[in-house]
Design goal:
heterodimer, A: flat, B: Rossmann fold, 10 helices, binds adenosine-5'-triphosphate, binds magnesium ion
Chain lengths: ~325, ~260
């Protein structure tokens, strides 16, 4: 860069081996990811073709591909959205508590416990859902039916095992809680002191400070985090497969009855071992649908997170 | 409206570190008091102890007394939130809320006071505050644009408008002009001269001319060495400080023979 170095004539900035190796491996890793992604997409598409082109009565259920995948897509989205609606407010509350209210020691411990939730294998959540959570939810579901039964969500008859769509939503909520709260915590802790102090100096209480300085600043980050959680909930297999096995129903808004739509990932896990021929292609086509949904959700998350840059206040 | 401040034997700590020691002074109402001194001597720390902003830093605390018009600021029954509503603050770096419009920035403090204000009253208050901060003409056509879209000097005047909108008794300003060009600086100084008719103003500044131009009284802070607490060395009428100070250290600092 400067003329005092004894480097060769500097038409170009001197390239150092370390930089070259790093740039090369980073580029390689980037390309590798794209290749793998393209490979997966190609595989899904090519294996789906037989199912996509098959006539309606060849697909299991005899209603054609759309009516086979439709309820699965519905079940997938419904369970993921319930999980999101439950987990996001809870995660934000936890993150706010840890960042602004908890004494420092408790905050560290609590953050650690929440992160630990992410380390539990999903099959464990499945068993926890069946054996612990579901039976305990049944009385609550009965209550919902009696008092709110006029809403389509809580129409009876109530499942006697508690293995319902709402149970799945709650289990998924617990599973995505760590990622959403970790990201929210990260965003909240990055709110510049400048802004929090501006609020406090105006005579804001702690809660008012959170309302006027923290939440507006962190909002899009939290949305991005919950989109990542949504991605995880959409693709969750084992917990859903265990809890909802054998109760496949069509599209229904009833959340607490024993007839529930299955989700795509769980359905693949359950059906795959016994499938051959075109049935496998059908399952893969449903996998393609999940792939597309997840891609869309991630694009949405990216778009939301990028919008953050406009009003980050870094001026 | 404006109130008198009496500080006695004030020690200010960050955890175990004593940043400021033994401050005694009285600040007159409806006047501008300037605080000067070398970097790190505790001017900001002292200023923030006057509206209990010091204690928002974990581990920070004060010992001693700050009395505003007979009321002990650190009395056990005093709510720091109420204190900050009476004693406004403008920071060294302009800090409008980036996610709020210009209008909402000015209205933010008023809304915190939770009194129900009608839209037209609020419009009037926002206009009056922006006029008070000499910003109205520049922003009246874009009140709904984000506050962070203004220039640095305009942002600082927006912060002043936000601070005066709630009609505080006292206005604390920590180097409010350090990020501003000379023209904006003069605008802010003119503003201070107008505001002192109503408010008690305390300003920290590194700009000697500024202190000499605007203030009636000047306090000089200094510290004996690194890791030592800062002290108030001299507190006198500005004219005296700049012509015939009592302390040698003050004279050295003002004439640039410092360190
Ligand atoms: N948040 C903090 N935690 C710990 N020590 C601090 C903190 N802020 C300031 N200090 C220390 O307190 C002392 C006084 O700092 P202060 O910011 O009040 O100085 P100042 O006079 O305002 O300086 P400047 O003119 O550079 O703004 C310094 O030694 C500083 O290192
Ligand atoms: Mg300072």
């Amino acid at each position: 860069m400067t003329s005092t170095t004894s480097a060769p004539p500097a038409q170009q900035p001197k390239s150092r081996p370390g930089d070259r190796i790093f740039a090369g491996s980073a580029k390689g890793a980037g390309i590798l990811i794209l290749v793998i992604l393209a490979g997966v997409a190609l595989f899904l598409i090519s294996e789906s073709v037989p199912a996509l082109t098959a006539s309606a009565d060849e697909i299991s259920g005899d209603g054609g591909l759309a009516s086979y995948i439709g309820p699965l897509v519905f079940g997938t989205l419904l369970s993921a959205v319930i999980a999101l609606l439950v987990a996001t407010p809870l995660a934000v509350a936890i993150a706010l508590f840890i960042t602004f209210y908890a004494p420092r020691k408790l905050a560290a411990g609590l953050g650690y416990v929440v992160d630990l939730l992410a380390a539990i294998p999903s099959i464990v959540y499945g068993f926890w859902g069946i054996f612990w959570l579901a039976p305990r939810l049944v009385p609550f579901y009965r209550w919902l039916e009696e008092n709110l039964g006029f809403l389509p969500f809580f129409a009876g008859p109530v499942s006697s095992t508690g293995r319902t769509m709402l149970t799945i939503g709650l289990v998924l909520a617990v599973m995505i809680l760590p990622i959403v709260s970790a990201i929210s915590r990260e965003v909240f802790s990055q709110v510049p002191t400048l802004h929090t102090e501006a609020a406090l100096a105006l005579g804001a209480t702690r809660w008012e400070m959170i309302k006027i300085a923290v939440i507006p600043y962190g909002k899009s980050g939290v949305i991005g985090g919950s989109m990542l959680g949504l991605g995880r909930a959409l693709g969750e297999t084992m917990a859903v497969a265990i809890i909802l096995s054998g109760s496949a129903a069509g599209i229904t808004w009833a959340l607490i009855s024993s007839a529930n739509p299955q989700t795509i990932a769980a359905n693949i896990a359950l059906q795959f071992p016994e499938s051959t021929g075109l049935a496998v292609n059908t399952l893969i086509a449903s996998g393609l649908a999940l792939f597309v949904i997840t891609l869309l959700v991630n694009m949405l998350a990216r778009w939301v997170v990028n919008r953050r840059a406009d009003f980050s206040g870094a001026n | 409206m404006a109130k008198r401040i009496d500080v006695s034997d004030l020690d200010i700590y960050y955890g175990n570190f004593k940043a400021v020691e033994g401050v005694n002074l009285s600040i007159e109402p409806r006047s501008i008091t300037a605080l000067i001194g070398p970097s790190g001597c505790g001017k900001s720390t002292f200023l923030r102890s006057l509206n209990r902003m010091h204690e928002v830093i974990p581990g920070a605390r004060v010992e001693g007394k700050v009395v505003i018009e007979g009321q002990d600021l650190y009395g056990s029954d005093v709510d720091p939130v109420d204190v900050r509503r009476q004693i406004g603050m403008v920071f060294q770096r302009p800090n409008p809320f980036p996610t709020m419009s210009i209008y909402d920035n000015v209205a933010a403090g008023l809304r915190l006071n939770a009194k129900k204000t009608s839209k037209s009253d609020m419009d009037g208050l926002v206009e009056r505050s922006l006029k008070g901060a000499n910003l109205w003409n520049e922003v009246k056509d874009r009140l709904n644009r984000p506050g962070s879209g203004l220039s640095g000097g305009q942002q600082q005047r927006l912060c002043i408008a936000r601070a005066i909108a709630v009609q505080p008794e006292v206005l604390l300003m920590d180097e409010p002009c350090s990020a501003l060009d000379p023209i904006s600086t003069l605008a802010v100084e003119d503003l201070m001269m107008e505001l002192k008719e109503q408010f008690t103003i305390v300003i920290v500044t590194h700009n000697m001319q500024q202190a000499a131009r605007v203030s009636e009284t000047t306090g000089f802070f200094n510290l004996n060495g690194v890791g030592q607490p800062g002290r108030l060395i001299e507190y006198n009428p500005t004219e005296k400080i700049f012509s015939n100070p009592d302390e040698k250290a003050t004279e050295d600092y003002i004439s640039g023979r410092f360190g």
